[in-house]
Amino acid sequence: MYENILGLSCVENHILATLKKRGMDISPLYHNCALSLREIFYFLVIIGEKQEYFDRVPRIQEVLKKLGVIKLVLKRQSNIQSVRNAIRLCKDNEYILLKVTPKFTKENLFARGFRDDHYVLVRANSDNFTIINDIPERMEIVTARQLTKAYGGDYFKLTVKRELTKNDTDFLWISREFKPDNQKPFYYFKKDLTDISNLGIKLRNMAIIYRILRYRMAIYYSMYVDTGFIGEVMPTIEKYYVLFEYYNLKKSVTIDKYYSILSELNETETKIMMELKYRLNNIEGLMEKEN
Amino acid sequence: MNLMNERMVRKILCNIFDRETCDDISIKDDLQYIGMDSLNCMELIIALEENFQIEIPEDKLGLKFICTIYDICKLIEKINADK
User: Fold this and answer.
1) Which residues 104-133 of A are in CB contact (within 8 Å) with B?
2) Assuming Cys at both sites, which of A125, A140, A156, A172 could form a disulfide with A130, CB separation 3.0 to 4.6 Å?
3) What long-range pairs does A276-283 form, CB within 8 A, spacing at least 24?
4) Model's pTM, two decimal places?
């Protein structure tokens, strides 16, 4: 259910997977994927924002709410019986995303749980409940008592109100906040990496966000142009992501090494952005759509 | 497959995943099912390098190369054989 789902959070993953399972093409929802490596670097390395709280790209659920495709309401409920009732009373187009405790996240779901607020999809299953986790994808059947122990204090009620339409897709295209057309080549200097505390972790966090956004880019822009060239470099991008983490853990790594990996990653970024910009500019009608 | 290596690998996995035992994991079980992701895969690699006194080549860094205990042991054997 969660394979090839590219959420930046567990809630995004559940919503994207749910809509996909209902037969919707979720590609248009990746419309804000062209955030540049430069900006991701700025927020995650220079500013030091944590990757799990990164919000420069608007959350897909907020986009869907504005379009009127979904309703998503957070309910803080201490009475577990009310929560169980809410789960049992869900209609076909309604879903509960339940917050679970860090302990349950780690010990039962084997999930990393970067944040304290981790959500799972829950469905009623006769007298029991089925819990579905996004990463790692995992399904567990729990009793009412186990659900009580796992419950983290609030839940989202997700209602799918309608399908995504062509009008929505066109609107998402026009309302893109980040566009390849606006990208220019950018170069890093070694001094950009000096005096940054926990540089390894921050570069790794940057790489986590970057790779998801480039996977999104390959999918989103494939609706308009052939993006096979992005797919071809994804293994390279994966390699850089892995290297940042590897050298972060090695600890005894010089800035030179990080700079070398960042420069190579930046070269890859420049190539794909410029190629995408070129291909989009050569498609007649796309510019008319925007105007 | 070298049993001593396998035992050491299981011990390392117990440390990384904070488990008392990893004897319940079969050698061909996908470690992603017990929570292995790209990040703790790197922790595993560092631990393997330290414990086995090897260096894992950069092109073998990644989940797809070490997703089972069997893969890990085979990789260690190959690196040692190539030394």
Assistant:
1) 110-112
2) A125
3) A276/A34, A276/A180, A276/A217, A276/A221, A276/A225, A276/A227, A276/A230, A277/A180, A277/A181, A277/A183, A279/A225, A279/A226, A280/A180, A280/A181, A280/A221, A280/A224, A280/A225, A281/A181, A283/A224, A283/A225
4) 0.88
